[in-house]
Amino acid sequence: MKRTFKSLFIAFASIFGLTACAETPPSPDVIRNFELNKYLGTWYEIARFDHSFERGLSNVTANYSLRPDGKVKVVNRGFKTKSNTWSESVGKAKFAGSKSIGSLKVSFFGPFYGAYNIVKLDENYQYALIISNGFDYMWLLSRTKTMPEDIKQQYLKRATDLGFDTGKLIWVKQ
Q: What is the CATH code for 25-171?
């Protein structure tokens, strides 16, 4: 029985690993002419869809910096209100294809990567809308702790046009 469980686990992990690491073609909706160096630095989370790895967090930031191997170091940080402590996760990102297309893959757990598609980004790299390959994940980011209402509405419209239910967004306390 133990051996069967181990074999099934290895088979499942192998299949999941191959699927998770497979190259994902960039969506036609991701931004073009992307410049990573302009994107690096700290971003504040303005809104997000609910998911277990950020549940209950406020004051959430994401910091992107270049690693020596050419990948991107990702440091996500947020405040856990219930326990009055800070939580931090360190991961890495790499391009899903061309470095001039805003489609990356991010990993916080070894070889397992998730899609990070930048579908709206202003020319000064101050505001960004990020989605996954499905409708499960969405983030609205800003270089500052707030976002002007007119800009916010433009980004929400883009998300709605892509089929996302913006009524499910959690507005993050900064």
A: 2.40.128.20
CA angle 115, 167, 136 (to 5 degrees): 20
The H or E element spanning position 152 is helix 149-161
Read off the pLDDT of residues 148-170 as tens digits, 9 standing for 90 and up: 999 999 999 999 999 999 999 99
User: What would the pLDDT profile of 101-124 be if each residue is shown by its tens digit?
Assistant: 999 999 998 889 999 999 999 999
Beta partners for 140? 47, 129
Please name which of 83, 96, 87 lies closest in space to residue 45, comparing C-alpha atoms: 87
Can you say whether the dihedral through the CA atoms of 48, 52, 54, 57 is positive or negative? positive
Please name the amino acid found at residue 116: Y
Cα-based distances in Å from 90 to 20, 43, 87, 103 = 19, 15, 10, 19
Prediction pTM value? 0.84
What is the phi/psi pair of residue 115, to 5°? -70, 140
Listed by start position, the domains of the chain span 25-171
Q: For residue 152, which phi and psi values (nearest 5 degrees)?
A: -55, -45
The single-letter code of the amino acid at 162 is L
